[in-house]
Amino acid sequence: MSEHTLVVRFPEGESPVYSAGTKFQGGSVVAVCFDGNQLEVADEMEEALEGLLSIVDGVGPEEEQLVANARNVLRRRAFGI
Question: Model confidence over 9-24: pLDDT tens digits?
Fold first, then answer.
């Protein structure tokens, strides 16, 4: 199975009616966010995380796993996983 993210801009005050399960070009809608362009938000979060990781040094054992998890998120995003 493959999933794709689309961002569609509609004129002010206009939007189609859809819900989970709505068919779209042979697939089904499985998630919807009505709060703007989440791809831009994800890019901003990635940039902020990269900045934070660049200054993280000498963290304690409790934080090491969090830093490792954050680096894995960035790695997966970079490789499209």
Answer: 888 888 888 877 888 8
